[in-house]
Amino acid sequence: MGTTVIQIDADAAEVGRNYRGTFGILGDPKASLRGLLRFLGQQDRKDHWVSRAQTIVAEWKDERRPLMTCDTVPIRVERLCWELTKRLPSNAVLVADTGYSGIWTGTSVYLTQRGQTYLRSAGSLGWGFPASLGVKCAVPDRPVISFVGDGGFYYHLSELETAARWGIKTVTIVNNNSALGQCLPLVEQAYGARSGKPSDLMLFRNVDFTLIAKAMGCQGIRVERPNEIGPALENALAAEAPVVVDVVTDPRVQAPAPWIPE
To answer: Above 90 in pLDDT, residue 193?
Structure first.
């Protein structure tokens, strides 16, 4: 409350749409920011703020580290993200679907090298896998990895045949929890003690996506234990064909909630 919100947008209809009283700057974001920097000039470094932010991030990482190294079965998604972080090539493009895939990768997969690129969907479930095929066609010399849930993968898994037919060598990691994991607590809360089968809205059969991948001409690697994740990712990245890495995870593991200051 009482904080001025400055919104830069190229579309005048978007300015102030979500927050009334917004101070709007209509223009290209990159050019507008460049102009703002010239106007503001050299600002004093707020070292105390930087130090505080670094402390918060370090504390958060320390809190999450036991989950990232957890050996439980079914696999925790934090462990999957940590294994991916360690093996993400220096020039890789990571493409994430929306929903939990975006939250998991945005919070738990770290980009550790300058040449790595991260792209995520902003609301279109199922976008991640076909988008990764487009990315690979645009940058054929870079490894492209997509991170999707089984619910999102169902939307366009038929494009596995496209990938195989055209030799589009991507690695698709399926966070396979046999559910729309993000919906589990919400649907159960909405139903409460009422009669009915809320599971029909969010649970799937236990499907092995590697069988589908192989039937369509791709490679598939099934992962059911944490110590299998690393070798599976390494083999997938070295393959000369599109690969689906199907990782069986715990449907009850919830993605990190947004951080809120004290």
So the answer is: no
